[in-house]
Design a protein that fits this description.
alpha+beta, four-stranded antiparallel beta sheet, 22% strand, disordered N terminus, 9 helices
């Protein structure tokens, strides 16, 4: 830009200056005027305006060539002091001469460096399946048990940079976006911790402690990356455990099916035992009722026998009550004790002969 402007001005003043030199009259005023235009043009002010979005935090870093001040740029406190809260940032430019007549050669350079930290929330899902993960490639974490049984397990993680942590993030990661930090630094940390946790357990223990393992790694994530300006909002498992050897998965499926069969058999046996207990309880109740009824009847008979023994005449009294005042109609003779047969006789009720009444 500066060179084009210089060429344009020189082309406009070149012809009058040459004529002035030939006539040797008025050459100095023209030359002075041309140089003044060049110098003023070269020193003209320049600036740029940048808009800061709501999810961004801006820093204006002074640019200096003084080596004694370079160490200040490595301080988190220095970055915090140069953090700006405005949404429109102006970047001034300075003309720096590189030589030429009256410093005519050079260019514009910014006196401040604008650094923006994007605080947008980022979620990553590292899975084996292309249908569920952030990437279509296999991104599940490869781990192994203490028996060296290899398998993969997926995980998901969500992180954000808070406004008050932007300077800390900038100090550790510079202009590196959070998406790259998640895919490189955070993912690498998770891989290492999951490998250590599952590697210290047998396969069976890892299956049982899977939830506990992710809780442990989650706390380690929060503590480690908060110190670097990243807030981990959530972390957990995804998809489950996928074994490298398909035979292991088949064996696990068979073992699970056998365990389910045992559970079902135990449930059926428990149910049958309950039914049997109910039947036994009912039988016991019925038997108890029968015993109680028999005991009551026996007690009544015993009481009746005691009463008859105490009062012999009570037998005739009861028979008289049963006969209703009537005599037997049939009399049986012979008891069959001597081999004779019993004979029954029909007893006729005697007809009463009317007593004649003497006539008067």
């Amino acid at each position: 830009m500066r060179q084009r402007l210089f060429v344009t001005i020189f082309a406009g003043l070149g012809t009058p200056i040459l004529r002035a030199f030939r006539s040797r009259r008025g050459a100095f005023p023209l030359i002075a005027a041309g140089l003044a235009v060049l110098i003023l043009t070269g020193c003209a002010a320049k600036s740029e305006i940048h808009a800061i979005e709501a999810n961004q935090t801006a820093f204006l870093i002074p640019l200096t060539s003084d080596p004694s001040k370079q160490a200040q740029l490595q301080s988190i406190d220095f970055l915090k002091k140069n953090q700006v809260a405005v949404k429109l940032v102006t970047i001034p430019f300075e003309w720096r001469s590189t030589g030429g007549l009256f410093g005519s050669s050079g260019d514009y350079y910014p006196s401040l460096k604008l650094v923006i930290v994007d605080r947008t929330l980022v979620t990553r899902e590292w899975t084996k399946s292309a249908a569920t993960g952030t990437s279509p490639s296999d991104q599940a974490f490869g781990v192994e048990s203490s028996e060296s049984i290899d398998f993969k397990i997926g995980a998901s993680c969500t992180a954000i940079i808070l406004e008050e942590d932007a300077a800390t993030y900038l100090y550790y990661y510079g202009s590196k976006p959070l998406t790259e930090v998640m895919d490189q630094d955070v993912r690498g940390f998770i891989q290492q911790q999951l490998f250590n946790e599952f590697g210290s357990r047998t396969l069976s223990q890892g299956q049982t402690d899977k939830k506990l393992i992710f809780q442990t790694v989650s706390q380690q994530l929060v503590d480690t990356f908060k110190k670097k300006g990243i807030t981990i909002l959530s972390f957990g498992g995804s998809e489950g455990m996928t074994y490298t050897d398909p035979k292991i998965q088949a064996a696990i499926n068979q073992s699970y099916a056998a365990q389910q069969a045992v559970v079902q058999a135990q449930a059926a046996a428990t149910q049958q035992s309950f039914v049997n207990q109910q039947l036994v309880s009912q039988a016991n109740a019925q038997a108890t009722a029968t015993v109680i009824a028999g005991a009551a009847q026996s007690q009544v008979l015993q009481q009746n026998g005691e009463m008859l023994a105490r009062y012999p005449g009570l037998t005739n009294y009861i028979l008289a009550q049963k006969s209703n005042g009537q005599v037997p109609q049939i009399l049986v003779l012979g008891g069959g004790q001597n081999g004779s047969l019993p004979f029954s006789f029909l007893l006729q009720t005697p007809v009463e002969t009317p007593t004649p009444t003497p006539s008067k």
